[in-house]
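Final report, closing paragraph on structural work. Over the funding period we assembled a curated collection of sequence-structure pairs, and we close with a single example.
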Amino acid sequence: MKYTAAIALLALSGADAYSVSRSDLRSLGQRKSVVAATRSHKARSCMKMEDFGLFSGSGIGFDDLWSGEECISEAALEKRLNKDGLRYRLNRTEKEADEVGYLEGLPGFKVNLPVIGETWLGPPKVASIWEALGFTATSNNEARQAEKIKAIEKARGAKKGVLNGEGASLRPKWLEKYGYPRLVGSGGIFYADQLSTDKVPMGGFNMGKSGQIWPVPEVVKKGAYGGEKGWGMKKKGTAVDGLPKNTKM
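Its predicted structure, as stored:
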């Protein structure tokens, strides 16, 4: 009887639900209030929400809270990232995909499938079979590399550290007192992963680390080992913030 009432309620409302499970339907017949159930959902790591359109316009309904939010849809999130030239889950942006075209120029066609609707059946828009299989697919396009460089500079010139403490201005004081600038806690750490697809060295944590075990591409050497963003930055004496070496130690 409980299931029948819940299903009838859903059919009459004609509204979309974010997700529905048997436990959620079963809870409709219990004494717990809708507000209490909503609060319990918020406490979970995997949040679910079902209002069946009953709370539309109330300020706490599904559409009231989530309408227009790209983060609840992978398709919408991908389009939003593509606007800034960023890739989603290693896939080329729509513009990048159009530039390379379909794999090997192979043909394809569109079909109208039940429920799914219009669907493309054919090769993906990738540069090679290896990219299609995921071996050479990457999210590290030029737009992402530009964002990494921005984040490095933002961290380097941070006005505030953790707990709203002193930021970049704290580092010269630490250099004077301890012989090295304090990066952790002063807003100066951003890990820019050093990848072989980078156009310029990124440097990882940009702390001038060194050491090499396996053969790596030249751009990785410059970013993580003896190059301008690796141990080489310490040879220049400027370290991360362009501060001079402490000669009092």
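The two ends are 80 Å apart (CA to CA). The chain has a mean pLDDT of 76. We thank the funder for supporting this effort.
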